[in-house]
Specification:
single chain, about 210 residues, Rossmann fold, 2 domains, about 35% helix
Length: about 210
């Protein structure tokens, strides 16, 4: 009999990303990063004159961050213990929206923090990638964890039987992210691992309400 499967995002679910990115752009590029709503593209301004950082430059800095600054990322409270507890009861894989050439760096990064899990990279909506993972593992049941509502919508559309938990562990972002649960695309919204773990455990055991 196949085991349950947990498919988890990394950034803002297992490791902080925006907080260390904010520190990086301030320290190295003289940029203030302030989230006032859910538009990441409007959050960055040059500290010296207030000019908004435009899209191509934002992407350049994000790429620089993931190429050279991933060491700055640190775990969300409870994430390491939570995901490793789940690994005792289910297969656990990481589905992260990074370019494919960064897959090994992400796997090493997670291993350095004590998470030893297979890493899948993806670009764009996560539904197709998750469906391919399900085709390979054929789990008895599956739980998908992600911080972004659009990925829950994508997964729900293509694989509606997957249980979906919207979890954003970054306080800088959580208040500004549309709730996938409220929109009907996730089964629950829980932003803290100590509260999320019991829900996930009940779900992979088939005991969730």
């Amino acid at each position: 009999m196949t085991r349950p499967l947990v498919i988890s995002d990394c950034d803002e679910v297992l490791l902080h990303m925006v907080a260390p990115f904010k520190a990086y752009v301030a320290e190295c590029h003289g940029i203030d990063f302030v989230m006032k709503d859910n538009d990441f593209g409007k959050a960055m301004r040059y500290a010296d004159d207030g000019r908004q950082v435009e899209g191509p430059e934002i992407w350049r800095m994000l790429n620089l961050f993931f190429d050279t600054e991933m060491y700055r990322q640190h775990p969300i409270v409870g994430a390491i213990e939570g995901i490793n507890t789940l690994a005792e009861h289910a297969d656990v894989v990481i589905l992260t929206n990074l370019n494919d050439h960064r897959r090994e760096a992400r796997a090493r990064q997670l291993a350095d923090h004590g998470i030893h899990a297979r890493v899948f990279t993806n670009q764009g909506p996560k539904g197709p990638a998750l469906r391919a993972i399900l085709d390979e593992y054929r789990p008895s049941r599956a739980v998908f964890i992600d911080d972004l509502p659009q990925h829950h919508a994508s997964v729900g559309e293509l694989t509606p039987a997957v249980h979906r938990l919207h979890l954003c562990g970054e306080p800088l972002l959580a208040p500004h992210i549309d709730c996938a649960h409220a929109a009907g695309h996730a089964h629950a919204r829980i932003d803290a691992w100590p509260e999320a773990l019991p829900w996930i455990m009940d779900t992979i055991k088939g005991e969730a309400a």
